[in-house]
TrEMBL record:
Entry protein name: OmpA-like domain-containing protein
Compartments, as annotated in UniProt: Cell outer membrane
OmpA-like domain mapped to chain residues: 229-345
SUPFAM superfamilies: OmpA-like
PROSITE patterns referenced in this protein's UniProt entry, alphabetically: OMPA_2
Database matches in PANTHER family: LIPOPROTEIN YIAD-RELATED, STATOR ELEMENT OF FLAGELLAR MOTOR COMPLEX
InterPro entries per record: Bact_OuterMem_StrucFunc, OMP_bac, OmpA-like, OmpA-like_sf
Length: 345
């Protein structure tokens, strides 16, 4: 409550007290006595008086003391553009939210009293906006309802999943996710053996009925396109990471490397390019060297896992091939990555 409001509030209370004292004074009792003697009078404030006082207090109460309702908004990607619909206190608050989230297309706004804007929550959600624009197909949504944040939609590329997970894991909010991604399945040698064993089942002890057509499954699953999709899925689930400012692969990335090595071992006819990428921060030539060193580290790790080095090619592209927009400082966790590309058989 401001100082001016406090002063006005005290003055009104003082005037109210004087008025109440005048009306509650017993003049008849005083007139029956020849000598005016002051007698304390025990008074009780009626419920009506209490209601009046409460109204006065509430009228001068600070806006900060009043109960606020959380704002609600929906961000929707449509035709490659993100639009915002929501419930706000006024147009200025709606503009403030769109500025924090960097949304340039207005949707439908509803204005209600006592709607509070949580700028701390908005600043955390703002981290999602760039990958939301770049990674998701049309129809994807971000909802903030009663301070709960949810993200739903379909990723345009399975590679984006691991990048998105890396971003959301550091957001420090309870994000509800409903994300659709491609999930290809590759039939390996062991799977083929199982198909051989389960290919037929006896019927009436006299005949057999085919259960699956093994030839078609193996043919489809062993194509270069399916192998590439499987590798992409492995990296999407958990990307290759490195120690800070070095080309040393983290221990957490060993599982991903082992899974990729298994795919390469099961498909000895393919050759892959290990492509290192960076964001745009720093010197361009230095970034290319860093990306080359990291790609080489991955190549060495795969060789140690038993993959023929003649099937592996390590290349560093630096900042030349971003898949997302860097921030104002040139930083992007998404662009710092290692890709695995099939380049021949």
């Amino acid at each position: 409550m401001s100082l001016v409001k406090k002063v006005v509030f005290l003055i009104i209370l003082f005037i109210g007290f004087i008025i109440y004292s005048v009306y509650s004074f017993d003049f008849d009792s005083s007139s029956n006595t020849q000598t005016l003697v002051y007698t304390p009078i025990k008074t009780e404030i009626s419920s009506n008086d209490t209601g009046l006082i409460d109204k006065i207090i509430n009228f001068f109460a600070s806006d900060d003391d009043k109960e606020k309702k959380p704002f609600n908004l929906v961000l929707t990607k449509k035709d490659g553009i993100v639009t915002m619909d929501g419930i706000f206190a006024n147009q200025a608050d709606a503009k403030r939210v769109s500025d924090i989230l960097n949304i340039n297309r207005d949707g439908e706004y509803t204005y209600e009293d006592d709607i509070a804007i949580d700028e701390v929550l908005l600043s955390k959600v703002a981290v999602l906006i760039t990958p939301f624009k770049d990674f998701f197909a049309d129809g994807a949504k971000i909802l903030i309802i009663n301070d709960e944040v949810s993200l739903s939609g379909e990723l345009k590329d399975p590679n984006y999943y691991a990048l998105l997970e890396s971003i959301t894991s550091r957001m420090d909010i309870n994000l509800i996710k409903d994300i659709n991604i491609a999930n290809p399945t590759l039939v390996t040698t062991s799977d083929e053996d199982n198909i051989n064993n389960e290919e037929t089942v006896p019927v009436n002890n006299n005949s057999v009925t085919p259960v699956v057509q093994k030839e078609n499954i193996v043919k489809t699953a062993s194509s270069s396109k399916d192998i590439q999709l499987l590798i992409n899925q492995i990296v999407a689930e958990k990307k290759i990471q490195f120690e800070r400012k070095s080309s040393t692969i983290t221990i957490e990335s060993n599982t991903t490397l082992a899974r990729i090595a298994k795919v390469l071992e099961d498909n000895k006819n393919i050759k892959i390019e290990i492509a290192g990428h960076t964001d745009s921060r720093g010197d361009k030539n230095l970034n290319k060297k860093i990306s080359t060193d990291r790609a080489t580290s991955v190549k060495i790790a795969l060789i140690d896992l038993g993959i023929d080095e003649n099937r592996l090619k390590a290349v560093g592209y630096g900042e030349d091939f971003p898949i997302a927009k860097d921030d104002e400082n040139g930083l992007s966790e998404i662009n710092r990555r290692v890709d695995f590309n099939i380049i021949g058989e």
